[in-house]
Every structure is written in structure tokens, then in C-alpha cells.
Description:
The structure is a homodimer. Chain A has helices spanning 6-23, 43-55, 63-68, 72-83. By secondary structure, chain A is mainly α.
Amino acid sequence: xxxxxxxAQLQVRSLAATCANCHGTDGRTVPGSSVPPxxxxxxxxxxxxxxxxxxxxxxxxxxxxxxxxxxxxxxAQIAAYFAAQKK
Amino acid sequence: xxxxxxxAQLQVRSLAATCANCHGTDGRTVPGSSVPPxxxxxxxxxxxxxxxxxxxxxxxxxxxxxxxxxxxxxxAQIAAYFAAQKK
Lengths: 87, 87
């Protein structure tokens, strides 16, 4: 699950903690939620969506604004984190 | 309410629309909401809070990440927009 370095893992977990506010702990949304789950989704798919939000290619309510603040490396780290979570 | 130019006003309204997702339409939250209202708050106060979120000086669940994507001019425009809203 991501690089072995505990410091880097801690950093990724704090990045991913922001997402939990809407996407649920470790990206597991409650059934029936209008917010999509992230846990166990393919990392490439997650990165692609974040880039699409960031470029405005994919319309959003808040994701376009949230995505602006992440660089490519952070997007990849977040995507890998949620891809590794159990559904 | 902001500059007279309709184009600029439209732009500010679309900026402020993102905030409505959590802060309610025109920044009026429902009673008892854990999210603070924005409507009619002093513009300086709103700008100060956004800069504090952006710098990390004020901890937040998502506001720190949202604020990263706004420049100073956008922060001032958003603050003026909500300050002008009826409580």
C-alpha cells in the first residue's frame, strides 16, 4: 500500500482524509449515497477523473475546485491510496 | 453588488455557486447546520478566514483544500458577494 516509508504513508493518509468528508472513511460511501465510493476503484480511473475535474473537462459541484489544489503527484498518491482500500 | 459589468457578476456568481453546496444558496445555511452561514457576514472577515484556510493557519475538514484553488482576487470577489447577501 504505497511506498514503505511511514512518513510518506502518513502524508498520503492526511491527503485522503479530506476526501473522507464526502466519500466516507477510506472511500466507502454509505449505501444509497449520491457521492460515489472510491475504495477499490482502479487507480488509473481515479487519477483520470481527478484530472478531468481539474481541467474542467468533467463538470462538478465542488470537485473542480478541490482538484485545483492537487498536483499530479498528489493525485497519483490519492488514487493509489483509495485503489488499495477494501471495497 | 460588485462591479456593474454583467459578465463579471456572472463570473462571481459561478464562483459563489460552489460554496452553496455546503453553505446553502447565497450562503444561507439551514438552522442547526454545522456549516456556518456566509450571507451578510463582513467581507473582510470572510476574506481573512479564506486566507487562514489557505495558509493552514485555520484547520479545516475541506476548506483548506478548497481555498488553495482561489487567488486573492477571487477570494475578495467571493467575500464581497456573500457580504452583500441578505441574512
